[in-house]
Amino acid sequence: MKWTMRYETLTRWAKEEWEKRNPDTPYQVLWASDSCGNQLAHRRIRPGRSMKGNARYITQVALECPEIVQISEYVIPRTKPMLGESVGAYSFRFQKGSQEFEVLYAATYYRDDDPNIIAIAIVPEVHLETWVSFEQLCNEVVRRPSRRQDVYIIGGTNTHFKPNVDWDDVVLHEELKEDLRLDMESFFKNGVPIYKELNLAPFRKLLLVGPPGTGKTMLCAAMANLALKKRRVVVYVSGADEDGASFHKIHHALNVVANAGYPVLLIVEEIDVYLRKEDKARILNVLDGLESPNNPKGALLLATTNYPEVIDERISKRPGRLDRIFVIPPIEDRELAEAMLQRYMGPQWQKDHAEVVPRLIDQTGAFVREVALHARMLAAHNQKTIVTREMLDQSVDALSNQLAAGDDLMPRRKVGFSTKRKNGYAGLVPVEDTN
Ligand SMILES: Nc1ncnc2c1ncn2[C@@H]1O[C@H](COP(=O)(O)OP(=O)(O)O)[C@@H](O)[C@H]1O
Ligand SMILES: [Mg+2]
Questions:
Q1: Is the beta carbon of 216 within 6 A of some atom in ligand 1?
Q2: Which of 369, 418, 419, 423 to mutate to test ligand 1, by most ligand atoms within 8 A of the CB atom?
Q3: Cα separation of 380 and 373, whole Å?
Q4: Alpha-carbon distance 200 to 261, whole Å?
Q5: Are 102 and 191 found together in one domain?
Q6: DSSP for residue 302
Q7: Total domain count for the chain?
Q8: How far is the CA of 333 from the centre of ligand 2 (A)?
Q9: Higher pLDDT, 331 or 110
């Protein structure tokens, strides 16, 4: 028995159809992008749009093809569902001068159990350039994030997240938090028109600096939440996948930022990693404005690092590279230490717990969280309903010793909003990618 691949079947059908519809017109069979079949592209590319090769796009018509069952996925960017990725056969119609021509396109799933789509196109030989520009446009409009209520991730294994950190969950000095929040708000509200007046790309750059565990990632997630509430697009660059921190991710992110069509909050965590590699010159170009995204609605970069030294040399000594640096310090005073401990003791909080507060000064939020969790588990283990002050002291001892022994509580480089809410980490919960 001879196996026929899906693309061979599609091509055979398309060639026969072509001969019937366009006899004696020389053509090329091409691999095509699945974006051309995506209903988002069909909706977003307006009839009459001009293409390379002096042609205009007219419309798209679905064709009957016995080899393909026409089927679409829907996406819910806001309230009402819309059709997105699709398989099927289409005729894309273009006009050049007074002449019309078509491209036949067929897309289907590679196998039944495989979400990948294969697509082919039959293109008139003399109009390849037009088709290529149309295909590129489809790719662009499909990749453009919709103004959705979650974070668009570049890199990493999930493509979208919903941040679950509330602004009030972050325990830091109110002035510091307010300063950061106002910086974002006043940039989008008042800053963007000023940049535009000066003919500058509205791109503002903020950096959060501080030792591991002080809440920088948490703050990013909380800022993301605020931004989403204001219906801004949030783009998050993660280094947590197999290609690690590579410039191509930043590059992809900047493309998304530039084409978003909405105000964007761009979060790049652990930016120092990118600055250590060969690509650093390009990152610096981005910060300097040579390669910065030009999104007319405004783009705010929120970057974080645990290693101010790296930033020191390359960035802070050069004006214009970063607009503001916010230092996120360990716990500096009793008031904050107590607030932090209360937060993580939750309903188990007792008045006399405040006695361990002096021991928490100069520690981080992550440390206090571990102390509280440890003490609460200790109580549960001993079948106690109340966490005593002794248990808390014990747990401070245990964790301090552990830290002193060099068994670092915080992994050196935890990249990404944590998804582990269960054990007390606050961060982002993955949601299904629907785009
Ligand atoms: N300022 C803070 N307020 C509340 N919780 C904090 C704070 N800092 C740290 N934590 C706790 O420690 C965890 C780790 O902090 P994280 O934001 O990842 O620190 P960083 O990114 O600065 O290394 C958080 O998920 C949170 O549970
Ligand atoms: Mg972090």
A1: yes
A2: 369
A3: 10
A4: 17
A5: no
A6: E
A7: 2
A8: 22
A9: 331
Does 181 share its domain with 212? yes
Q: Of the bound ligands, which one is closest to the alpha carbon of residue 268?
A: 2
pLDDT at 429 over 60: no
Percent of the chain whose pLDDT exceeds 90: 58
Q: Which atom of ligand 1 is nearest to the CA of 328?
A: 22
| Residue 149, C-beta contacts closer than 8 angstroms, at least 6 positions apart | 78, 162, 228
**Residue in 208, 218, 271 to alter for ligand 1 test, most ligand atoms within 8 A of Cβ:** 218
Same domain, 197 and 56: no
Q: How far is the CA of 111 from the centre of ligand 2 (A)?
A: 40
Gap between the Cα atoms of 435 and 428, Å rounded: 18
According to the model, what pLDDT value does residue 116 have? Answer: 81
C-beta pairs of 192-201 under 8 Å, 24+ apart in sequence = 192/263, 192/297, 192/298, 195/298, 196/296, 200/289, 201/289, 201/292, 201/293, 201/294, 201/295
The ligand with the least distance to the CA atom of 415 is 2
Could you tell me if the CB of 213 is within 6 A of ligand 1?
yes
- Residues 333-349, mean pLDDT to the nearest whole number: 96
**pLDDT tens digit sequence for 279-304:** 777 777 888 777 788 899 999 999 99
Centre of ligand 2 from the C-alpha of residue 214, in Å: 8
171 alpha carbon – ligand 1 mean position (Å): 9
168 and 288: one domain? yes
CB of 218 within 6 A of ligand 1: the answer is: yes
Distance between CA atoms of 263 and 184, rounded to whole angstroms? 11
Q: What pTM value is reported for the model?
A: 0.68
In a domain, 368, yes or no: no
| Cα 268 from chain centroid (whole Å) | 9
- Determine whether the shortest distance from the Cβ of 202 to ligand 1 is under 6 A: no
Is 215's C-beta closer than 6 angstroms to any atom of ligand 1? yes
> Hey, which residues does 118 pair with through a beta bridge?
108
Predicted pLDDT at 415 = 45
How many other CB atoms are found less than 10 A from the CB of residue 154?
Answer: 22
